[in-house]
Each structure stands twice: as C-alpha cells, then as structure tokens.
Amino acid sequence: MSHKSAKDFFRPLAVGAPLPLREIPARPSRAIHFFDPSNEKMAAKIPGMIGTVDVLLGNLEDAVKADNKVAAREGLVKIAQATDFGPTQLWTRINALDSPWVLDDLTTLVPAIGEKLDVIMVPKVQGAEDIHYVDRLLAQLEAKAGITKPILIHAILETARGVANVEEICGASPRMQGLSLGPADLAADRKMKTTRVGGGHPGYLVRQDPPRDAEGNSQIDAQRAIFQQDLWHYTIAKMVDACATHGIYPYYGPFGDIADVVACEDQFRNAFLLGCVGTWSLHPKQIAIANRVFSPSVEDIAHARRVVAAMGDGTGAVMIDGKMEDDASLKQCLVLVALAEQLAEIDPELKKTYDAIEVTA
Ligand SMILES: CC(=O)SCCNC(=O)CCNC(=O)[C@H](O)C(C)(C)COP(=O)(O)OP(=O)(O)OC[C@H]1O[C@@H](n2cnc3c(N)ncnc32)[C@H](O)[C@@H]1OP(=O)(O)O
Ligand SMILES: O=CC(=O)O
Ligand SMILES: [Mg+2]
C-alpha cells in the first residue's frame, strides 16, 4: 500500500496539479483499440473509427519498431491535436519504465495533448513503486502544463512480480483506473511454455477418467474425452478481485490469433463472465467481437428486469421460472441492468435494442 496517510491520498502530488478523483468514472470501454501512430495507413483510419469503438489507444510500446518510436510519439500528438474524439476515449500505452523512450513519451505527451488523454497505460508494472513514480511525474507535468483534469493510470499485469503485488498496484494512487492482463509478457516472465499471445493451449487439459473392465482394471488406452482448460483463469480471477476491492476496472488483454474470431470471442466472454469490463482489440475485426461480448445480452437484460420488477423493495425471496431469487441475485441482476444503462447512453443501436425488451410478469 501507499505510505501516504488517508488524508494525503487525495492531495495533488505537485503544486498546481489537478485534484485527484475520488471515484473512477465507469465509462464504457468494451474495446481498447490499439493502433501504431507511426503507421500512416493505420493512423489514417483512426478519425473514421470514432464512435465505433469505446477507446482508441495510440501504442508507443511493443509492436512499434525501435526506429519508429519517435515517429509514433509525434504521430500520436499530431492525430490527437487534429481530432475531435467525441464520445470515444483517447488512451496511450507508453514505453516501459526502464526503456530509453519513456521519459520523452511523458514529457512530450502531457504538455502537447494532456487535456485530451484520458488514460496512460503503463506496461510491465512490478509494484506500487512504479505507479508512485509515474504518479508524481504526471502531477509535475500536469501542473507545469496547466492541465485541468488528472490523467488516469492503467497498469498492465504482465510480470510475475506484478501479479504477486497486484493489490498494492491497484491501491497505489487515486489515478489508478484499471488493469489489463498481458498474457504474452507474463508467459515469458513466468517461463510458461506457451508461445501464443493469449488464448488457450491444446496441451493444457484435463482428461476424463479411464473406463474400467469387468475385473475393475483401468482401460487407459480407451477413447476418453479431454477438456481444454483456460491458462489465464487464475490470473484473471486474481486481477478481478484486486480491481473490485479498489474500485477500479479489470480488462482482458490481447488475443493474437486475429483469424480465429471464434476462440477470440470465447476468451473475451470468459473474461466478461468473470468480471472484466472490456478487452484489447488489435485488429479492426476484433472491435465488433468485443462490443458484442461486453454488452449484456437481450436475454440477460430481460431476465434481470423481471427479477428487479418482482423483487419490489429488494428483500425476501421469490420464484421465477422455477428458480429462487433473493437480495443477492437481485444485486447480480442490477450489475447487468446498470451496465446496459451505461452502454445505452453511448450506443444508440444498443439503446434501441434494450428499449425494445418487454418485461414479462
Ligand atoms: C502483446 C502486445 O503487446 S499486443 C499489443 C501490441 N500489438 C499491436 O498493437 C498490434 C496492432 N495491430 C497490428 O499491428 C496489425 O493489425 C497486424 C500486424 C496484427 C495485422 O496487420 P495487417 O496484416 O496489415 O492486417 P490486415 O491486412 O488484415 O489489415 C486490414 C486493414 O486494416 C488496417 N489495420 C490493421 N490493424 C489495424 C489497427 N490496429 N488499427 C487500424 N487499422 C488497422 C490495415 O492497415 C489494413 O488497411 P487497408 O485495408 O487500408 O490496407
Ligand atoms: O502487452 C501485452 C502482453 O500480452 O504482453
Ligand atoms: Mg506486453
């Protein structure tokens, strides 16, 4: 945890910096869409994507060639200055804190586009000390540039130490907006033996018990069902608990098999069901998947509204379609109803869909 006392926690870290937020706004962020601002073809598509995606993220770290680091930083400044992002948030991913580029990333971006930047994603965070460093530096830069709203910090959970320290990372600063899983770097750092960027692995499985013959001997060579397991379940669950504890937001990360839209959707949905609010999109085709998966389904909202209507003041127990509903299941339903309301505010199509749902008795 931070060394600061409770009273100091919400004081600015530099004279003239904006006041830290007491609550992190629940802004829809189903897809955080990555683009390389040094790639002219990609960058040219960004203005046309506004309104179709919740977050556009100018990536400066991995996936940007070393020779293009300066062009990416300058490209992001140019795009941000020239563009009205409307309802779409603008985030960036800066280079790692031990890299030769990160200081220039921060000292360039904050004065140039600090008012437009909603969130800075910090990669390879190891512990609270990394967040404290960025926190103070941002406060100094915000004060110098006269920025009026605090820029929030999002950490990528992609080192073994970061996972071990996940609680202190979430609570390190009032700027903490959320965490994303970084399965590629995390796999490397933990010395896991998968070379995939996110997703499952056919070797990580549980096999059905062998049948037995009449004498009770195991038939280990018999045909047996196998059940592929999720390599990321433990980390995502740990991340979700840490984020919920600290009032910030958990996200899945990259799914590198761009062509496998089916497995991508499965991975996203597992994260949604476990409590994540969004995911990364690396390619335009992943945006629609994320928007679909991270928006509650019509069936879920229809059911949730029925429970809300039936539960009256929220106490007691009722039966709906043969199932018991009570205060706890009402709270589960309210999670979905609240999310649907937030999404309807920024997504007119979704609003029409949710408005058309009839609540049956
Ligand atoms: C482990 C991590 O750190 S993950 C995060 C870092 N990685 C990234 O940010 C990767 C971002 N994505 C990309 O670089 C690219 O999408 C790649 C390399 C995966 C695939 O690129 P391509 O082979 O060019 O994809 P493809 O040919 O299908 O692209 C189709 C069109 O979409 C454009 N496009 C591709 N990705 C993006 C994107 N992320 N944003 C906007 N436009 C894009 C292409 O420029 C192309 O445009 P065109 O039709 O005018 O030619
Ligand atoms: O940055 C993301 C990762 O998976 O590594
Ligand atoms: Mg990474």
TrEMBL record:
GO MF, any single term: lyase activity
UniProt keyword terms in alphabetical order: Lyase, Magnesium, Metal-binding
GO biological process, one term: oxaloacetate metabolic process
Name listed for the protein in its UniProt record: CoA ester lyase
PANTHER family: CITRATE LYASE SUBUNIT BETA (PTHR32308:SF10), LYASE BETA SUBUNIT, PUTATIVE (AFU_ORTHOLOGUE AFUA_4G13030)-RELATED (PTHR32308)
Binding, Mg(2+): 158, 185
Listed cofactors: Mg(2+)
HpcH/HpaI aldolase/citrate lyase domain residues: 33-196
Species name: Nocardioides simplex (Arthrobacter simplex)
EC number: 4.1.3.24
Residues binding substrate, per UniProt: 93, 158
InterPro entries: Aldolase/citrate-lyase_domain, Citrate_lyase_beta/mcl1/mcl2, Pyrv/PenolPyrv_kinase-like_dom, Pyrv_kinase-like_dom_sf
